[in-house]
Amino acid sequence: MRRTTIVFFVIVGVAVAIALFARLGPGKVTAVTGLIGSEKAPFFADVRVQRALARQGLQVTVQRAGSREIATRADLKSFDFAFPAGVPGAEKIRRESGASKASNVFFTPMVIASWKPIADLLVQQGIAANLGSYYTLDMAKFLELMKAEARWKDIPGNTAFTANKSVLITSTDVRTSNSAAMYLALMSYVANGNNIVQSLEAARPMLPVLSGLFLRQGLRPTSTQEPFEDYLVQGMGHSPIVIIYEAQYVAQAARGDGSIRPDMVLMYPTPTIFTKHVLVPFNEKGEKLAAALETDPELQKLAVEYGFRNSNLTYFREFTRKHNVTLPDNLVDVIEPPSYEVLEGLIQEIEKLYAQGGGVK
Questions:
Q1: Is the pTM of this model over 0.70?
Q2: Which element (helix H / strand E) includes 280?
Q3: 262 contacts: CB under 8 Å, gap ≥ 6
Q4: How large is the average pLDDT for residues 275-287?
Q5: CA 344-350-351 angle, 5° bins
Q6: CA 247 and chain centroid, separation
């Protein structure tokens, strides 16, 4: 249904854009093509976004690809811009393409989607804190549980969730997905004594722990939407604790369709990490799009409606308040990911272990 809706929006949007372009007159329309991370596809498919871009004289055509894939594409210069998720990939693209600019257009914190009984259990264990409308999760303490290969039923005093499942954070496939790569970046920092890992050699002693966070999950989906939909539909027994983008939760809550229920909670990791959506323009057309996304008030508001944070903090507050979603305005314990080379090296090492079939439980 969602894919059909997006296709419908694209068709309607194209019709609207054509009408607007006809009004603008020949020579005043700039056709722009780019590679984007799939999490931004609904935004670009939105009729209102296409109208706003058309008013700026921009006709934007996008092709979806994984953010890790975008960073290694050999045909980048055949596009006007690349718009991956995550700073490491964007920096790699900027260096490889020789682009002189990059724009941090949107960002969203990585968060944990969980359930009130589980969150309260973790509060009792001194691993989480209840801040009223949301929780925080101490990642160093939670990592100790995962390193010990604890099971939920074995947590002392646990009567809320007595499943025989391993205590693990459900993620996507780290080999393909940015959200999983950001989870890896965050846990590498925690495992390294709250220090950014500076080299792959320095990370090697941590590889058994870091790889286990993914290998013990078994095969995982490539898109962040799938584990989030499992969380929404299949419930606590299937998805007790899932790492997602805050934007997903906000956008879902704003739909008002009842899929976000009272027993669902957001937990903010401490420390946490942002996924920054960085647009790398390869020419003036890409720069024009970046400027529009950064400065046009309507486009900024529409980005907020897809859950993304940007420089329009006032509208983000208004939008979330309107939809009864209370979130922290500012997150202070935020880390940066390691360099592209270090993060990519870690992913490749884990990829080798997947190929060997090692560590899956």
A1: yes
A2: strand 272-281
A3: 116
A4: 95
A5: 85
A6: 8
Task: Tell me the backbone φ, ψ of residue 265, rounded to 5 degrees.
Answer: -135, 155
Q: Which two tokens stand for residue 304?
A: 């907020």
Intrachain domains 2-106+277-296 and 109-273+331-356 with the same fold: yes
pLDDT (mean) for 222-237:
89
- For 112, the enclosing helix (H) or strand (E) is strand 103-115
The C-alpha atoms of residue 161 and residue 152 are separated, in whole angstroms, by 7
**What average pLDDT does this structure show over 329-346?**
92
Q: Quickly list DSSP for 249-266.
A: HHHHHHH-SS-S-TTEEE
pLDDT of residue 20: 52
Provide the Cα torsion 185, 189, 195, 198; round to 10°. -40
Whether domain 109-273+331-356 has CATH 3.40.50.10860: no
Distance CA 87, CA 94 (A): 10
**Burial label, 361 (beta-carbon count in 10 A; 0-12, 13-18, 19+):** exposed
- What is d(CA 40, CA 88) in angstroms, rounded to the nearest whole number? 18
Does the domain formed by 2-106+277-296 have CATH 3.20.20.70?
Answer: no
What are the residue ranges spanned by the domains of the chain?
A: 2-106+277-296, 109-273+331-356
